[in-house]
Write a structure and sequence with these properties.
By secondary structure, the protein is of the alpha+beta class. The chain is built from 13 helices and 29 strands. The protein folds into 3 domains: 350 residues, 3-Layer(aba) Sandwich (Alkaline Phosphatase, subunit A); 73 residues, Arylsulfatase, C-terminal domain (2-Layer Sandwich); 128 residues, Jelly Rolls, CATH 2.60.120. A 10-stranded mixed β-sheet has the order 7-6-5-4-8-1-9-13-2-14, with helices on both faces. Strands 20, 22, 24, 25, 27 and 28 form a 6-stranded mixed β-sheet that branches. Strands 16-17-18-19 form a 4-stranded antiparallel β-sheet, covered by helices on one side. Helix 6 runs parallel beside helix 8. The chain starts with a helix and ends with a strand.
């Protein structure tokens, strides 16, 4: 009798847990790429039509002073981890600095450990190789393009936004249709598949990032308008808007909309929604919501973005604005808090949950400032990164900008940041400068190289690309336009040999799927204190060099020499463990 009672108690407990799990909210986080605060109708754009996102805006709780990083990778790293990008190790878009330290835990790890189905569809831009791919970082179901944009160097050769080849759970697959349509189609597949269990879906779109390509019917309404800086850019946003409408209709049809936390945000300021005289200027054509600066600027136009959150069952509705200063690092703890998921200490978060603000608490929120820094400056002018440069210390009233000198702006009186008031308020400058120091103490020890694994059983063949060369200044060849010129430059890949043994390295100037010959007469590799040189055979499409490597961290450098003895690197190098020594 006792045993039956115990079994009954266990069964009832399990049923109660399952019922509770079924009530846990789903989460869908939609983030567009290079769309600024002013690139929406609901936020004042007088030309661009975004009725579906406008509708979501009208229904949602909106953070009106929400900040991200000024460009792609750092925002994604902060969003995934709840930590400052510099702390994660992923603080630039190339040069071997797009990958997070392996000890960083992600929001996908958190939700997967809590029993959620986790999915990612679209742009990752946090590493193309193990242990940095989305499937290595907590996502169970992934469909994504490599690199920072479709058609960039490590993306599948020939991709151009239409009928492309993307990676599904480690295998390349051909897809039909325009990229944004594909991502939303795959998002619908994921929610249909997981409709009977709680799920977390990360939907980071690559649009409207350049190159600016869209089916002509979306661009047509904006073509020829002198007030439109880039008609294709607007067309890409119009297509996103249309797909958002279809996606939300499907959530309603599936009965998921009521208990799904839906977030819409963007990853940095506009790239092409307006024309500017310079990185930090005001717009001269187009609409930028009255802000100064664009993508890559540490002025507000580079990092002040829209953030809407909608959850009917949780009471997050009604079109309310919250003007408290908030940031991308706050998203992970907020979602964990809303879903009742404890965050383990090992996550060591910089962000703070926004739930008290969403609940309408009148208690003071836990943070009154935020720091944005473009480590190394625009275009990699100063790598490795140093303190203070290209940074902004933000409060709800002030911006201390360190870009073209140190300047102070009263953002409430001067949202366009036209008038430097540092001389009038030296005490504010001193206070804000002091707030920067703990930030630098936190991130600077982690602004260290992150390595790519070789010989990782999770990735039998590691395909390295020149975008990940660890350069000290500037950018390596990171797109096919640069690579097609066969530039005479090379750089090191920082790698970690996970198991000692014999390795086969295949050197190429084009990815294997391009099926193009190597333009060189000699090839050489240097790794783990060894160098080996071989001749390049006529019409060779990949130069093979084998070496015995010890386990541990090292650098891999390649050279392909022309007849004049000038060398460029093997922009693509396959590395495969082939056996024990």
């Amino acid at each position: 009798m006792k045993r039956k009672n115990i079994v009954l108690i266990i069964a009832c407990t399990a049923m109660a847990w399952m019922a509770s799990a079924m009530e846990r909210p789903n989460v869908i986080l939609v983030m567009t790429d290079d769309q600024g605060y002013g690139d929406l109708g609901c936020l004042g754009n007088p030309i661009l039509k975004t009725p579906e996102i406008d509708k979501l805006h009208a229904q949602s709780i909106r953070f009106t002073d929400f900040h991200v990083s000024p460009f792609c990778t750092p925002t994604r790293a902060a969003l995934m981890t709840g930590n400052h990008p510099g702390y994660t190790g992923a603080f630039r878009t190339s040069s071997g600095r797009t990958m997070m330290h392996p000890d960083e835990k992600t929001v996908a790890n958190l939700f997967a450990d809590a029993g959620y189905a986790t999915g990612m569809v679209g742009k990752w831009h946090l590493g193309d190789n193990a242990p940095h791919r989305p499937q290595d970082r907590g996502f169970q179901d992934v469909v994504w393009h490599r690199c920072g944009g479709i058609g960039q160097a490590s993306d599948y050769w020939g991709n151009d936004y239409f009928d492309d080849t993307y990676e599904r759970n480690g295998t390349f697959e051909a897809f039909e249709g325009y990229c944004t349509d594909v991502w939303f189609r795959e998002a619908i597949r994921f929610v249909e598949k997981n409709r009977d269990k709680p799920f977390f879906l990360y939907l980071p779109l690559n649009a409207p990032h350049g190159p600016y390509r869209v089916p002509p019917e979306w661009e047509a309404p904006y073509k020829g308008n002198e007030q439109v800086a880039n008609s294709a850019f607007y067309g890409m946003i119009a297509n996103i808007d249309f797909n958002m409408g279809l996606f939300r209709e499907k959530l309603e049809e599936l009965g998921l909309a009521e208990n799904t936390i839906l977030i819409f945000m963007t990853d940095n300021g506009t790239s092409a929604g307006a024309k500017f005289r310079g990185l930090d200027s005001e717009s001269v054509v187009g609409y930028n919501a009255g802000m100064r600066g664009k993508k890559s600027s540490v002025y507000d136009g580079g990092h002040h973005v829209p953030f809407f959150i909608y959850w009917p069952k949780g009471g997050l509705t009604g079109g309310k604005d919250i003007d408290t200063l908030a940031a991308h690092i706050d998203v992970l703890p907020t979602l964990a808090d809303l879903c009742g998921i404890p965050v383990p200490e090992e996550y060591d978060l910089d962000g703070i949950s926004l739930k008290p603000l969403l609940d309408g608490s009148e208690e003071p929120w836990g943070r009154k400032h935020h720091v944005v820094q473009y480590h190394g400056g625009a275009y990699g002018k100063a790598l490795p990164p140093g303190p203070l440069a290209y940074s902004t210390v933000l409060t709800e009233r002030w911006r201390l900008v360190n870009s073209d000198g140190q300047k102070l702006f009263d953002i409430q009186a001067d949202p366009a940041q036209r008038t430097d008031v540092a001389a009038e308020h030296p005490e504010v400058v001193e206070q804000l400068r002091a707030l920067y120091d703990p930030f630098w103490e936190r991130v600077s020890p982690r602004l260290t190289p992150v390595r790519i694994d070789l010989g990782n059983p999770a990735e039998p063949k590691t395909v390295l690309c020149s975008q990940d060369w660890h350069m000290k200044t500037g950018n390596p060849p990171w797109n096919f336009g640069a690579i097609k010129k066969l530039p005479k430059v090379t750089g090191p890949w920082l790698v970690d040999v996970k198991r000692a043994g014999r390795y086969r390295m295949t050197l190429r100037q084009w990815p294997a799927e391009a099926d193009k010959p190597v333009v060189a007469v000699r090839a050489k590799v240097g790794i783990a204190g060894q160098e080996k040189e071989v001749p390049v055979m006529a019409d060779s499409k990949g130069v093979v060099i084998e070496l015995d490597l010890p386990a541990g961290p090292t650098e891999l450098v390649t050279w392909l020499y022309d007849r004049d003895g000038k060398a460029g690197g093997a922009y693509f190098t396959d590395v495969e463990w082939i056996g024990d020594v």
